[in-house]
Amino acid sequence: MSEGNLSAYTSRSETRPLPNESVLFGSSLRMQAIRSTLRTVAVSNVPVLIHGESGTGKELLAREIHRLSSVCSGRFVKVNCPAIPGTLFESELFGYEKGAFTGAIGRKAGRVSLADHGTLFLDEIGELEAGLQAKLLQFLQDGKFCPIGGQEEKTSDVRLICTTNRKLEEEIVSGGFRQDLFYRINVVNLRLPALRERQVDIPVLVSYFIEAFNCEFNCRAKQLSDGLMSSLQAYHWPGNLRQLENVMKRYVILGTEHAIHSEIEQKRPKSQRFTTIPDIPPGGSISLKKVTREMVRDFELQVISKMLEAHSGNGVRTARALNISYRAFLYKVKELRLSSPSVQ
Questions:
Q1: Residues 6+ apart with CB under 8 A from 40
Q2: pLDDT tens readout for residues 87-113
Q3: Rounded distance, CA 173 to CA 196, Å?
Q4: What is the pLDDT of residue 247?
Q5: What are the tens digits of pLDDT across the range 118-139?
Q6: Beta-carbon count within 10 A of 169 CB
Q7: pTM, rounded to two decimals
Q8: Which of 46, 287, 296, 312 has its CA 20 to 30 A from that of 92?
C-alpha cells in the first residue's frame, strides 16, 4: 500500500500520498479497532508508540496520524534509527554549528529543528544506543536542545511518533532500553497486526497493488484467480505487507500467475500446504460443497503451476506430463486463469 502510487511500505513512501482509508485499514476487526483509536489519538498530539513486525506498515500508520493531527501543515520528519551510525546520530538529530568538528564547513539544522511544529518520526527507536537514549529523553522532557558546537539552547515543538519491532518491556529488564524514556514515548500504544492476522484484507490490498503497479509500469495484469487468492490468504507472510507488495510487483511485471504461486508454495510450511481451512465463527455455517470445490481448484492450480515451471512453461510437454489431453490442459489453464503457455 503506498503513498499515492503504492510503496508506502518502502523508502519511496515519503514522496507519495496516502491511500484511502478502505485500503489502509481494510475490514478486519483488528484494523478497524486501530482506525477508531487513531481518530481520537491523532488530534490530541500525545506521543504514540507503534508496535509491529517488520513490514506491517508502521510508517504508513504514522503518516496517517500526522495527516489527521493539528500539526499536519508542518513537516513529517523521519529518523531511521538503525540506519544512522551512533557517532552521527546526535548531529543528525540536533544539527551542528560551523567548525563543530572536522568537516563541519557550515551550519546544519538537525531533524528536530526541521520537525518544529510538525511530526518527528523515530523509526525503530529500540535500536538507539543508551547514550543517545539519554540525550533524546532530555530533549523530550523540555523541548530544548543544543546543536553540536553551539552555545545557546534552542527549542522545538514536535509531535512525537515512534515505532519498534522489539518488545521494549523486555529490553528494559535486560538494560537495553531506558525505562524513563519508554514511559515518555509510550503515552498511547498501538499494535499493528501481522498480515497473517488480517487475511480478510488481502484481496483489497492485492487489488490495490495490481492497479497501482499497472499504472506505474504501464502493464495490463489481470486481477488474480480465486485459486491463487486463496493461496495468498493461506500463506503465512513472514515479510508482511512489504513482502506482499514485492510479490504483486513481480506478478504485474511478469504477467503470469504460476511463478508467483510456485514461490508462495515453496516458502509455505509443509504442514500448511493444500490444507486451507476457512475460519468459522462460533455458531456459523459454511457450504461444504463450495469449500471443497475451492480447495480442489486450489490444488489443481498448485499442481499445474509446478508442472509448468518444471517444463519451462511449455504447454504441450506439461499436458503430456499430467497425462491429460492438450485440449483438456488448455481448458484448465483458462478455468484457473493462468497465463497462456508456450507450445515450443
A1: none
A2: 889 999 999 888 777 777 778 899 999
A3: 29
A4: 92
A5: 999 999 999 999 889 999 999 9
A6: 11
A7: 0.74
A8: 46
Question: Environment class of residue 207 by beta-carbon count within 10 Å: exposed (0-12), middle (13-18) or buried (19+)?
Answer: middle
Domain 29-192 in CATH 3.50.50.60? no
The answer to whether residue 187 scores a pLDDT higher than 90 is: yes
Residue 88 has a pLDDT of 87
Question: How many angstroms separate the CA atoms of 77 and 123, rounded?
Answer: 10
The alpha carbon of 276 is separated from its chain's Cα centroid by a whole number of angstroms, namely 24
Domain ranges for the chain = 29-192, 196-335
